[in-house]
Write a structure and sequence with these properties.
By secondary structure, this protein is of the alpha/beta class. Helix content is 42%, strand content 12%. The chain is built from 27 helices and 22 strands. Helix 23 links the parallel strand 19 and strand 20. The longest helix has 26 residues. It is globular. The structure holds glutamine and zinc ion (ZN).
Amino acid sequence: MALAHVLGVPRIGPNRELKFALEAFWRGEIDEAALRSTASGIRQANWRRQHAAGLDFVTVGDFAFYDQMLNHVALLGCAPQRFGFGAPLALPEYFQLARGNGACQAMEMTKWFDTNYHYLVPEFTPETQFSLDPGWLFEELAEAQTAGFDAKPVLIGPLTFLFLGKEKPGKEKAVGFDRLDLLERLLPVYAQILARLNAQGIEWVQIDEPILALDLPPEWRSAFERAYHHLNTAGAKLLLASYFGPLRDNLLGALKLPVAGVHVDGIRGGDELAQVIDWLPATRILSLGVIDGRNVWKTDLTAALERFEGLHARLADRLWLAPSCSLLHVPVSLAGEAALDAEPGNWLAFAEEKIAALATLRTAFNQGRQAVAAELSANARALASRHASSRVHDAAVAARLAALTPVHDGRNSPFPLRQAAQRKRFKLPDFPTTTIGSFPQTPEIRRARARFKADALSEADYTAAMQREIGYAIAKQDALGLDVLVHGEAERNDMVEYFGEQLAGFAFSHNGWVQSYGSRCVKPPILYGDVSRPRPMTVGWARYAQSLTGKPVKGMLTGPVTMLQWSFVRDDQPRAATALQIALAIRDEVADLEAAGIGIIQIDEPAYREGLPLRKADWAAYLDWASRAFRISASGVGDATQIHTHMCYSEFNDILPAIAAMDADVITIETSRSDMELLRGFGEFSYPNEIGPGVYDIHSPRIPDTAEMTRLLEKAARVIAPDRLWVNPDCGLKTRGWTETETALAHMVAAARAMRESARAAIR
Ligand code: GLN
Ligand code: ZN
């Protein structure tokens, strides 16, 4: 009998109940008991669903009020010392770790592997001590047990916990301190947790070590053996779970660890399966991720049965079935999606539907396909309809893709010739000033957009309202003396959704929310079919803005890689092919903007770096298609049209050549927070085109003065030729207010003028 279980499920609740309860609690509108009761309701419903579907365990410990890594910080009693919290950690203190308080900055947050989920980064110093805080996991376990469920707790493994943390200076400056040194101190606490779970009647504990899907330094890889020899003696049976990719060089070591079972990602690591089976010791359980936990498509159940039938025959009881990873990364349920068309609606599976599919697979393995004949045939019909649908397959898009030649992914002339043509055309001063695109999204703007969406505002009135906003933004920029203006993006709710709504091939769920961090959720578009652009998307707004000023107005688009990265995308073709389709749609928009007289066009790619595969060996292939997709979107224009791109992160020294390969005429990037740290890389790799390192941080309400911005520019001018330097903020201004925006931009324009002045003085 194959068993079935999940590694984890969404915790936000079917209607984002956790989000609303958290925010009400933070505003002081509900008390802790009310928040806890909402949380308990969500957990209970999750367990009931798993139980009702016939899974063999319910998973406990996948719930978190804010984040699963933060839960482990609490459980292991290792809150950063700078907060001064004692044990046990109270819930309000837990939230202060996540959100900061008057005295302490919040813990840092970063992306969980290659997902769009963010975790809080544990902080380790040489003094860090661990001690079990029994309030956290164990209460939830008791809750599940009291409700009568057979529970399988999940923990983040000690190595993943340490690896994903960061070393911080302690009281004394520790030379050569390595967080791996803390493992010896950490293991006894993990052993205590396991022993306690065992004493609470637990047989199996899932212990997640997703870092096994990463390139690991050898000392980390070898630490696994030590760690699991220690934990193996603690009593509970361990299911060591890895996911998000193949294990490759970590595989053999992982399979040899003294644990009772392993979980591998059969979707992303499917190619390794034969090896897994060969090497799996004869007594181990194999939990196989057979349902994709990273996307929203129905699994082809018949194909899965055929693929794994032999394995089931061979492993029998030793085979467990699961989704590839936690279902945290998909929306909760399709129940609220009545408004979605049958196509693509009937092709989708969110967490709840994935659990049902898993149960169907389990029954088919254990009792034969006839036991679930109806489910299997409904599944086959849905897949056949997706496969054959004219909403998925557009012959014109296929033909365009097939006709792509190298001509399409390069500009007509090399950069120096383009630069000369653009200088002649725009006659910009040295150190030209610009912004990243958006201006403050005021309550009035949001209200107008919402009313238009709800049909409470006519198209004409909406257009007039947005034009007023554009007029306001242009007048302000003109008055500030900026050189390259923007229309301000008032009409956009979200930089991906705005375009997705206008492109063929995208659908939008009503309630398909996924946790991004804490109470923040995102609703990614669903890219289900061949992408094309039926009509211009931004030309009207751009043309209107340009009609109001003699200065050039930048057209503003979202790039193909970012569109891909922030959507749920098709699994029936490679991501690279989907990116190229989006690129062609953007290319059409770029051409129309150019024809409308927009001479400068920015194609934002803030998600370019986060698309990097987990393993370095896979980077080159990704960067190759990603930069090609960008170039295809950007290169249908004449030499005198200036293409900008924007990325908002400061760690890309390691991919500078690939960024140069995008061949944008100008790139604007975040640098101010790191004090132009980024530019170190430019010393070693000379970026060939023009560049605007952000001179102030728009994420913070602090407004630096002109002298501070000038100092940053001087620093930049030491590594980048001054005649290739642009002056701009770090990112878009949509989250800021107008007053601070005006002050900051006035300082920025003054800083650019100061730079011009000292350049002139140097010549004299
Ligand atoms: N043009 C966008 C804006 O200014 C860019 C946003 C981003 O980089 N994420 O808002
Ligand atoms: Zn940005």
